[in-house]
# Entry
Amino acid sequence: MSVPSGPRIITSRFDVADGHTYAGYVRTGGYVSLRKAVSSMTPQQVHDEVKAAEIQGRGGAGFPAGTKWGFLPAGVHPRYLVINGDESEPGTYKDRLLMERDPHQLIEGIVIACYALNASQAFLYVRGEMAHAQERLAQALNEAYASNMVGKNICGSDFSVDITLTWGAGAYIVGEETALIESLEGERGMPRLKPPFFPAVKGLYMQPTIVNNVETLANVPYIVGQGGGDFKSIGAPTSTGMRMFAVSGHVNKPGVFEVPNGVTTFRMLFEAPEYCGGIRNGGSIKAFIPGGASAMWFFPEHLDMALDKPTVDKAGSMLGSGAIVAMDQTTDMVAACWRIVRFFARESCGKCTPCREGTTWLERVLKRMLDGHGRPEDIDLLFEVSESISPGIAWPPRQTTICPLGPSAVSPIASAVRRFRHEFEHYIEHGRPIDGVESPFATHLASHA
Amino acid sequence: MSRLSEERVATAKEIIGRFPRRKSALIPLLHLAQEQDGYVAQDAMVHIAELLDLAPAEVYGTASFYEMFKFHPVGKYCINICTNISCQLVGAWNLLHHAEERLGIKSGGTTQDGLFTIEDVECIAACTEAPALQVNYRYRYKVTPESFDALINDLESGKLTGEVPPHGTLASVRQTTTAAWSNRGVEEQAQVDAR
# Structure
C-alpha cells in the first residue's frame, strides 16, 4: 500500500536530541520566521499568509484560524492570545509531544501570532498533569526571553510581547475555550454562554481574546517562513497542510503520525507498514473512533475515507482532535460505550442540568447492564435520556446545554447501540458479552464504581 | 498544615506579577501549596486568600473544582492508572486490579505507611503507549504487572528519588521572566498607531 507523503512540518525536530533547547532550535532553522515577520512584514501581511494557508484549527472544531483571527474588533486594547494546551480528549496525544519535544516552535508561533493580532500578552495554559511539558516550556521561555525572542523589543524591532506560562489542575472541561478563560481568571472551569461571551469580543477579563490550539500555532512559523500558498498546496484543498494523528487501540504499532491532511485514508493509517502495520493478531476492524471520544464512531465501510474535514463531517462524524482509536472484532462494545460515557459523566462541570443529570443516568444504566442487572427497557431508556441531552440524536449534535460536553456523551451510545444492539440485548438477557468478545474486566468489575 | 514558606511567598509574588489580575494566579498558587505539603492545607488556602485579596471561601470554591488538588494527606507517590478507552482496550483494568492486589488498597486509597495512593483516572494523553500511568505526574508507558512491581520496588528503595519528586511537585523548572510592559492597553494602541 503506497501512502501520500509530505514534508515534516511540526514534527521535524522530534528526532533531534537537543531540538527542545534554544541552541538546537536555532541550529535547525528556528526563529527565522519570527525575524522575517517583525523585520519585513506588517501584522496584516502575516495575518494574510495565515488566511491564505487556510489552516483549520487543530483543537477539535476545525475552524479556519485565519478567519478566527479576523474576529477581533479594531481599536480595542488590551487584547489577548490564549493558547489551549489542555489536551485531554480521550485518544488525543499530540499537543503534549509538541510542547515537550519542540517548545520553541510553539513559542515562535505564539509570538508571530501576537504580532499579527497586535496583542502584547499571551497566556500559555498547559494541562496540569503534564509536568514535563510545563518544565520544557518554562525552560524554553526563559531562554527565549534571554535571547530577545520574547519580551521587550523583539529582535531589535519596536514589537514587544510577554508570554505567561500557566497551568490547570485536572478538569477536561477546561479544554472548552470559555471554560479555559474562566480557569485563567482563577475560577471554577465552567463554560460561558455564547452569545454574548464570544472570546474574540468578550474573552479574558472581558477583553478581545483569541484562543488557539497548540498544534495550530506550531504550524505558524512554517506558514510565515514558506508562505501560506506553500502550506495550502500540501494535502487536500479542503483540508490543507500536514496534520498530526494519534492512532491507538488494537493496531500492531500504535503511534503519532504527521500525515498529509485530507488525502491520507483511515485504512492507510491502520494498515500501512510506515504507520500502524495492521490490526493486532491479524484481526479486523469492528469499529473505530475517528476524532476523539466525542465523535460518532465509524465502521469497516468507512476505512477508505480520506481524513478530510468536509468528507468526514458529511459522513456524520468529525476528525476532532486527531484521535483515532481502533477496536478489533474482540471488542466488548457495551464496555467500550460505558467507559466513554463514564468519562463524560465524571467530567461534566455540573452547570447545565441535562448534562449533569443525563450523563450520570446514562453511565448508571450502562453500568448495571455490565454488572448483569440490565432491564429489558434499558435500551429505550438510554435513547430517552440521550434525547433530553441532545434532541434528535443527530450529527452535528443539537444542544440543550451551554457547551458540547453533554451532547458528546450521546455519540458513543448512538454509535454503539444502533450498530451493535444485539450485544446490549445479550448483556441484558445473559449478564455477559456475546461469544467471541472479551470483557475488559476479567475478574473484578464489581469492585469498581 | 501550614502557611506558605517565605521562599514560596516570593515565588507566589513573581507569579502574581505575570497576570493583569491577581486572582488569575490562584491555581498556580494552590499548586505551590500542594508542593509544600503534599496536599492543599486549610492554612495555606487562608494564606493564599490574603495574598490575592480574596475570601478563603473563594479560594476553596475554585480549588474544589479541580481533580488534582487534594485536601487531605495522600501517599508520597500518587499512582494514576488510566482506564480510559485506549488503555481499557489493551488491559488497563487488569493492570489496575493487579496494582490494587499488590498494594493491598482499592482505587482511591492510600497504603498504611503513607507511601502509595492509587487512582483510576481519565485519559492522560499517552494513548499510543497504553496502558499508561503517571506516578506523581511522571509517565510510565506500556505498563505490565511485572513493570508495575518493578516500579513499586524502585520507589520503595529510593532508587527513583531524583526522577520522581514527592507528590505535589510538578515542573522542576519555573518561568523566571518579568513582564516587559505594565500599561498594556495604552502601549498596544500606541504600537498599532505607530505602524
In short: The mean pLDDT of chain B is 95. The CA atoms of residues 82 and 121 of chain B lie 5 Å apart.
